[in-house]
Design goal:
361 residues; 60s Ribosomal Protein L30, Chain: A; six-stranded mixed β-sheet; binds adenosine-5'-diphosphate; binds magnesium ion
Length: 361
């Protein structure tokens, strides 16, 4: 097509106007961005039982269904190869996806693993990564059924998709919490965040003097929780065994506060938790003291713990109490969208969402 000078000037002026209206992703934040990008998604398939908005999508017909979830890990954003063994990375890449399957109360069955790699990686390096992938598949009884392999300009990117199955009536969403339900969490909180702090510190020391070997001995637990997370499958099985059906469920990838707010938003309710009920281990307290961090910060906003947060009817209190490794941390309230923590001295703190806030430049 032939453009006149007027047309060219018009197009440029339109571009400039658009430029002025450009919004920064940073300001929007992760959750705002996802909401914005997906607001026009409309499901037209009868088999799409749940689309965007939970830990996994639910697809099916009749009594049974499949859940599907994808997570991406990017070098320099989610992992640093200075202190992340590739085998651990392979393991973690699979586990973080299986965590979303379990958070729907489904059983994971298959994964696909896609990798983009730059020229700096050797075949041996990728073999190590896959050793970790296979170890996770073995541990959780899932099959590696496909993926994709491609080049990248710099660094490594990993995208894993996990598939799981469940009877449709067994699926637990984020939106089922009811007023007066008890809020429970598996395991303990904040360790992965403290593990990351330790690894970052040792990296700095090593960068300044490469003859100094990292000292990780005292921090085995927290570092292990960051590098090689595992899911409390036993605890989830115990819930089934005791016939406890949680009313809502989510896994803790972005921090307790964020996940509580997701439950509040989707279940149209509020929540109150109690500081003295939060499961924080001695290891986290010690590491936090050393880093002069208030242990509440990793516990509330640390993320990457991959514990399961769930709500149960008040009537299940005694049964849940009998399960080792589950803490009852609070209850659901009618104050819509309000997530509050009561501190030891009786003051109320409003919980804030996390999620990543910024892209690098
Ligand atoms: P999780 O932390 O459990 O992995 P996310 O916060 O990453 O969940 O995602 C929340 C929901 O938004 C999920 O249903 C996910 O599939 C969906 N989602 C995230 N990013 C996109 C995207 N770019 N396009 C479509 N859906 C997305
Ligand atoms: Mg999740």
């Amino acid at each position: 097509m032939y453009y006149t000078m007027q047309m060219v000037l018009f197009i440029i002026s339109q571009c400039i106007m658009k430029e002025e209206r450009l919004r920064s992703i940073e300001e929007m934040g992760e959750f705002g961005l996802i909401e914005h990008l997906t607001k026009d998604a409309r499901n037209i398939q009868d088999t799409t039982i749940k689309g965007i908005g939970d830990d996994a999508a639910v697809i099916g017909q009749g009594d049974d269904c499949q859940v599907v979830t994808t997570d991406m890990l990017v070098e320099g954003i989610h992992f640093d190869l200075m202190y992340t063994p590739l085998k651990h990375l392979g393991y973690k890449s699979v586990v973080v996806n299986l965590s979303d399957v379990y958070a729907m109360n489904a059983v994971p069955r298959q994964v696909t693993v896609s990798v983009a790699i730059s020229g700096k990686f050797s075949v041996e390096a990728l073999e190590q990564f896959y050793e970790g992938v296979y170890a996770a598949c073995k541990q959780y009884g899932v099959d590696l059924v496909g993926g994709d392999t491609t080049a990248s300009v710099t660094g490594m990117m990993i995208s894993v998709t996990a598939l799981g199955t469940a009877a449709q009536k067994e699926i637990i969403y984020r939106d089922g919490a009811k007023v007066n339900n008890l809020v429970c969490v598996t395991g303990d909180l904040g360790a992965a965040y403290m593990g990351l702090q330790v690894l970052e510190r040792e990296k700095k020391v090593f960068e300044e003097d490469s003859s100094i070997q990292p000292k990780l001995g005292d921090y085995e637990y927290v570092v292990g929780r960051f590098l090689k997370p595992d899911i409390r499958v036993e605890t989830l099985l115990k819930l089934r065994e005791l016939d406890i059906r949680p009313t809502s469920m989510i896994d803790i990838s972005d921090g307790l506060s964020s996940e509580l707010l997701h439950i509040c938003k989707q279940s149209d309710c509020g929540v109150v938790i109690y500081q003295d009920k939060l499961p924080v281990t001695m290891e986290v307290n010690l590491a936090a003291a050393e880093f002069q961090i208030e242990p509440l910060i990793p516990a509330l906003n640390g993320g990457e713990d991959y514990e399961i947060l769930f709500t149960i009817p008040l009537s299940a209190h005694d049964k849940v109490k009998s399960i080792p490794g589950v803490s009852i941390i609070g209850n659901i309230t009618e104050h819509k969208g309000k997530a509050i923590m009561m501190t030891g001295d009786g003051s109320a703190i409003s919980l804030q969402a996390q999620g990543w806030q910024a892209y690098g430049n």
